[in-house]
Amino acid sequence: MSRRCLRTAQLAASVLAVLTLGPASEAANPSPSIPEPSKPSLSSPAETISWTWSTVKPEPGQPRGYAQFERACAVCHGDGPAKPGTRALRAKYHDKEPALLAERTDLAPDYIRYVVRHGVSVMPPFRKTELSDPDLDELVAYLTRKRH
Ligand code: HEC
């Protein structure tokens, strides 16, 4: 086959592919139906909203920030072997700082706010609809209560 002939054949093949595959693939997948998302209940914030939200209920008399921590952070920053936040911070600080976020004495309020709103590594950012500014204030007060 000559060069020109080959190019014409390639062109014809691609035109054919666009003509046949385009409408055909649309026809094979007519407007996919998107399942309705389940609506989180706002009346009981301790309910599981997504996989990052803990169902641990705060003890009566605990500070409000503790409740926020248990709700949004303990699933990763709690005590135990399967907590990615605790594991990552243990690896990062090698016992120079406590691996448990709630035991830290060095965390600056603005740093906590930044990390919570932007995320870091596998830690997701928290939107204001998930954790409001007043909730974050309480959380920061709790996590900086031992700060010197
Ligand atoms: C999905 C798991 C996950 C959740 C949920 C999570 N974190 Fe994290 N967080 C991590 C990981 C992992 C790191 C360590 C990232 C790294 O490698 O530096 C981290 C790091 C941090 C740091 C930085 C600590 C340091 O010394 O640099 C802060 C502060 C923090 N998280 C606060 C929070 C708060 C507050 C919440 C709850 C609102 C929260 N995290 C929820 C996984 C999580």
Question: What does the model show?
Answer:
The chain has 148 residues and is mostly helical. It folds into 2 domains: 1-30; 64-143, Orthogonal Bundle (Cytochrome Bc1 Complex, Chain D, domain 2), CATH 1.10.760. The chain contains 6 helices and no strands. It starts with a helix and ends in a 5-residue tail after the last helix. Heme C binds at residues 52, 72-73, 75-77, 84-85, 88-89, 92, 101, 107, 112, 115-116, 120-124, 126, 131, 139. Heme C (HEC) binds at residues 52, 72-73, 75-77, 84-85, 88-89, 92, 101, 107, 112, 115-116, 120-124, 126, 131, 139.
List the helices and strands and how they pair.
Layout: H1 3-28, H2 64-72, H3 74-77, H4 84-93, H5 109-118, H6 133-143
The chain binds heme C (HEC).
Heme C binds near residues 72, 88 and 116.
Briefly say what this structure is:
The chain has helices spanning 3-28, 64-72, 74-77, 84-93, 109-118, 133-143. With 148 residues, it is an all-alpha fold.
Task: Classify the fold: give the CATH topology of the largest domain.
Answer: Cytochrome Bc1 Complex, Chain D, domain 2
Low-confidence stretches: 22-26, 42-50
The CATH class of the largest domain is: Mainly Alpha
N to C succession of SSEs: HHHHHH
Helix- and strand-based class? Answer: mainly alpha
* Overall tally of structural domains: 2
